[in-house]
Write the structure tokens for this entry.
Amino acid sequence: MTTDRANSYRGRLAPSPTGCLHLGHARTFLVATQRTRERNGTLVLRNEDLDPQRCRPEFVSAMIEDLHWLGISWQEGPDCGGPYGPYSQSERRSSYLAAWRRLRDYGWIYPCTCSRKELALIASAPNDTDDEPLYPGLCRSRSDVNQFSEPKGVNWRFRVPDGEEVGFGDFHLGTQAFTAGRDFGDFVIWRREDVPAYQLAVVVDDAEMRISEVVRGADLLKSTARQILLARALRFPSPDYYHCDLVRDETGQRMAKRHDSASICRLREDGCSREEVLRKIEELAANSVDR
């Protein structure tokens, strides 16, 4: 499990400001921080604020405050700068457009005009936490790709190499393997609303910010396979991966931002100390092993 990057370790925290951070986020970020410290590396904070409808400035301030309160610090980020900024995705459009053009010119993507209603009538519902219905390929044969000088107005899908196994070693969960076209299909990398999709933005950012290892939740294993294919298509090196077990609440439900009672903001408001919150995180993590 190696990368083409220099020997220096670079990890990252990548919260999305669509709500308050919860105990599950905190667990993952604490693991990322610990792994960076153990390797005398650099930790990067990236503000993943791509969604203009859901991301709010007050949540950016809240997440930075919560992370500091938890004892987490970073060396590069939107609040302190660094050599590979900007560190907010809303300010990185030019990088995403350059990647879109490369994928278009290489023949890896195509425009898709299928509506959500049409796809819902065709595809079955996803059956795991990191999935989307397999795209049936209705627009795959379109020949007008090069007529688009910009991506807006349609969805753009990445053409996965059907039948190719995408494998990677995970530092926590071991060897992983997914088959393109079976475990996941052609996925959206740019949305018709003229917003880059998560998969593309993350690949571009991790490459340009020289991230050597990605620490995140096990719900994103299948996204990792997608992102490895994107990185190959863009001729970027892929980072190493460490996928944390998902943290669940006392009822067995996966932690989510709708769990307001488990948000760091709410726990702080309720008078919980940092030590109490850290102990709660460890207790939940110990009872939430998700293999």
Q: What stands out?
A: The helical segments are 23-38, 57-69, 93-106, 116-122, 198-208, 221-234, 264-269, 274-286. The beta strands are 10-13, 42-45, 109-112, 155-158, 165-170, 174-179, 187-191, 195-196, 213-217, 240-244. The CA atoms of residues 195 and 214 lie 23 Å apart.
